[in-house]
Amino acid sequence: LAQAGASIAATRKPKTARGARILKQKEPQLVEKVKRALMLFGGKSSQLLKDAMLGIATVKGKEDVVRLARRNDGVRPLEAGGEVLLEKLARQWECGLFTLATHSKKRPNNITVGRVYDGNLYDVLEMSVQRYEANGFAEKDASVPIPNVAPNSKPMMVFSGAGFERSARGKLAKNVLVDLFRGRIVDNVNLAGVDRVVLCFLGPDSGAAAGNNVSDDEPDEGVVYVRHCAVVLKKSGQNAPSMDGGRPIHLPYVHLVDVGPSFEFRLGRYRLPPPEVAKEACRRSLKPSDKAAERKASLKNTESDELEGRVGRMYAPRQDLSDLQAVSMKRMAARERRLARREREDEEEEEEEEEEEEEKNTSKARRTPRYTLQRYKGLGEMQAEQLWETTMDPKRRTIKRVTVSDMEVAEKMLVDLMGSGVARRREMIEEEGARRRSL
Q1: What does the DSSP assignment read for 278-322?
Q2: Which of 48, 79, 139, 217 is deepest in the core (most CB within 10 A)?
C-alpha cells in the first residue's frame, strides 16, 4: 500500500517542475516508504484510550505519528459518509494509516485502525481496549536488568495463533498490526542490532461482551494480546556449524523482558477493501529476474543468429506521399537551368584546357628535329640500305679528291695516329688538340 495523497495529483495540475515532482511523490508508489499514522479522537474519549494511543505512538515511533488533539465527532469510518473528514485529514497530513479513539456505552474504549489508499478509505478494523500497561504486564525479575531500547529501532514481530491465518478478520488484524508497528523499511537487518520484539497472540474471547459484533462462525477470533519486549542475549554454551565450513557460530540464549507498552484488544467490526482495489494496492515491483523475463517476452519479431547475434524484423508501412508538400515548378525550372549552365561552363573549360594542351604538344613537336643520329666506327658496320643512302647513292654522295704531297710526312702521321705507340699518340693529341679541330 502507498501513502495517501494521489487524489490531489488527479485534481490539481502542476504549473512548475517542482510542483510536478511534489505531486509525483504523493502518488502511490510500488516501493513505498514507512507509513505515517494519523492519531485522532472522536466525540468522546476516556483516559484508558488516551494512554493506549500514547502507547501505540511509543511502539511505532513518535517521528512517524501525527497526533491531533481536537475532537472529531463527525468521523465514523464504518458509517456511510463518515469517512469524508477522515480522508481529508489523511490527505492533508500525508498519512497512510489512522487510529481513531472513540468511547460510547455500546462500544467502550474502542480504537478503529485503518488504512488509506489513493486518498480513499481502504480497510477498517475495530479493536476494543481491554487492558493496557505502560510498563508491561509481567512481573520484573530483579536479577535481570531492564535493558534500554533504542528509539525508532526496527522491531522483530512474532505472530502466534491459528486465527491470524484462518479467517478474514484475523488476516486483516495481522496485516494492520504489521503496517502499524513494522518500523523503517530496510533491505538488511543486523541481528545483533535487534533490541526489541513485538509479540502478538490471537486467543479466544473469555467472555462475549454485548455489542462487539463477533460472528458465530469466527469463535477463535477473540482477543489480541500485544507485548512489547526487549531482547537480552546471554551465553548458552551451544554452537552451530557455519555455512562456509569455518568456525562454529556461538548461539546465544535469548531472554525477553516485557518492558511495555502492552495491550489487550478485543476484535470487533471490520470492512475489507473491494477486490479490484486490493489487487491494485498490493501490486509489487518486479524482481531483476522477472524484469529480464518480461523484457525478453516484450521483444517481438526478433531471433538469435550465431554469426550476427540478435536479428530483428521491422515492418515499414506504405508511405502516403499525397500529404508531402510539392516543390514549386518555377523554382525547379530555375534550378535545372542553373545546373545546365554550370555543366556547359564546365565542358567549355575542359575543351579549352584540351586545346591548350594539344597546342603545347604541337609546338613542341615542331621544335623537335625529325631525324636521329647514329655513330659508326666505319662503313662496314652499316646496313646495305644505310650505306647506299649515305655514301653510295650518286644523287646524294659527295666525292672529294685527296692528294699527298709528301709521302714521308703522311706516313709518319699515319704511324703516329694508327700505330702501336700509345705514348707518342698521346703527346701528339695533347700538343695539337688545342689548336686543331681534326687530325
Answers
A1: HHHHT--PPPHHHHHHHHHHH--SEEEETTTEEEE----PPP-GG
A2: 48
Asked if 279 and 144 touch (Cβ cutoff 8 Å), the reply is no
In angstroms, what CA-CA distances link 141 with 145, 194, 255, 259? Answer: 8, 22, 12, 11
Per-residue pLDDT tens over the stretch 112-165:
999 998 889 999 999 999 999 988 777 766 666 777 787 778 899 999 988 898
Neighbour-count burial for 322-347, b at 16+ CB within 10 Å, e otherwise: eeeeeeeeeeeeeeeeeeeeeeeeee
Report the distance separating Cα 266 and Cα 203, nearest Å.
Answer: 10
- The DSSP secondary structure of 140-205, one letter per residue, reads PPTTS--PPPPTTPPPEEEEE-THHHHSHHHHHHHHHHHHHH--S--S---GGG--EEEEEEEE--
In this predicted model, what pLDDT tens digit does every residue of 6-60 receive, in sequence order?
444 445 688 898 888 888 877 766 666 778 899 999 989 999 999 999 999 999 9
Please tell me the number of Cα atoms within 13 Å of 53 on its side-chain side: 28
Instruction: Please state, in angstroms and rounded to a whole number, the distance separating the CA atoms of residues 339 and 35.
Output: 75
* Contact between residue 55 and residue 134 where contact means Cβ atoms under 8 Å apart: yes
Asked whether 302 and 310 are in contact (CB, 8 A), the reply is yes
* Rounded Cα distance, 385 and 389, in Å: 6
Task: Output the CA torsion sign for 186, 187, 190, 195.
Answer: positive
Contact predicate 43/75, CB 8 Å: no
10 Å CB burial of residue 228 (0-12, 13-18, 19+) is buried
CB 95 within 8 A of CB 38: yes
Please tell me the total number of residues recorded for the chain in this structure.
439
Cell numbers that stand for 392 in this block: 653510295
With 0-12 / 13-18 / 19 or more C-beta atoms within 10 angstroms meaning exposed / middle / buried, residue 356 is: exposed
**Angle, helices 168-181/47-60, rounded to nearest 10 degrees:** 70
List C-alpha distances in Å: 257 to 152, 215, 346. 18, 35, 103
Question: Could you tell me which of 122, 125, 121 has the C-alpha nearest to residue 110?
Answer: 125
Q: Closest Cα partner for 198 from 55, 4, 35?
A: 55
